[in-house]
Here is the input.
Amino acid sequence: MENRADCNRECINHDEDESVCRKKRGCEPPRNKCQRKPDNRGDRFGEALEEAYNEGYRDGYCDGVEDGREKGQEEAYDEGYKDGYEKAKQEVIDYIKKNKSCGHKCCCCKCC
Here is the structure.
């Protein structure tokens, strides 16, 4: 069995099916290009946005994991994960709208 570091590296490199890697790691979201940290040093809004996204993403992901575990089915797990991810994404969009502008060009922000 692979250790956590191997699994993290594989997910980042997309060498392993993401759903398999998620299950190995438990309640910890896989990293993707949306989560890679931009250089927000000195940019308070950027730091706050990043924090809101990462917190929402983790919360949403963990909600999805728990939904799947409760139902005990792989389909329920994946469905819960998607719902959790969308919930987290919406939290960021709401945060951006509330704070007017983002200034980041990434795949997650609808403000760009």
